[in-house]
Design goal:
Layout (H helix, E strand, L loop, with lengths): L1 H37 L3 H5 L2 E8 L6 E3 H13 L7 E9 L7 E10 L3 E12 L2 E10 L4 H17 L4
Parallel strand pairs: 1-6
Antiparallel strand pairs: 1-2, 3-4, 4-5, 5-6
């Protein structure tokens, strides 16, 4: 009985520490992503994505496979032009599965060009550690101006040539 209580206590102490380690690893991946983008370091940036990753941009047409996103971004990186997003706050949630190998996040970001933005996504943990499986960048719209902005978007879409 005494051994069982000691074992249970050890597990209870180790579980929060393991969760903190996983959270720190995820924070490092996302912080490294933003740092690599800011310095236009393509190889470091792409290494943080899973091979089958998807990037969803701010434009409704921007849903890119990793290869498509590389084709868009690499010319910018090769010219030394990156982009800077500074995390203001971040939430991470782990999937309720035993492996603790899937997590999703949301982060509020500051950008000189876009102001307040939001990044959301999914990370998967494999042999190489945590990788980004999906990243979605959006521009949160304050409710007080949403009606005016959506009217502009509707007008823009109505005027666009149809395929």
């Amino acid at each position: 009985m005494r051994l069982a209580l000691i074992t249970l206590a050890a597990v209870a102490i180790a579980a929060p520490a393991a969760a903190q380690d996983e959270r720190a690893a995820i924070d490092a991946v996302l912080d490294d992503l933003h740092a690599a983008a800011a310095r236009a370091d393509g190889p470091a940036y792409w290494a943080l994505y899973a091979p089958d990753a998807v990037f969803v941009g701010t434009d409704a047409s921007e849903r890119w496979t990793l290869a498509q996103f590389k084709a868009y971004a690499d010319p910018h990186f090769n010219q030394g032009k990156g982009w800077s997003y500074t995390p203001r706050d971040r939430q991470v949630t782990f999937a309720a599965i035993e492996c603790r190998c899937v997590a999703w996040f949301e982060e509020t970001l500051d950008s000189a060009s876009y102001g307040t933005t939001r990044g959301t996504g999914v990370l998967v943990k494999g042999e190489g550690g945590w990788k980004i499986g999906q990243y979605s960048l959006s521009i949160p719209v304050p409710n007080d101006i949403a009606e005016d902005l959506t009217a502009q978007i509707k007008a823009f879409e109505a005027a666009a040539p149809k395929p």
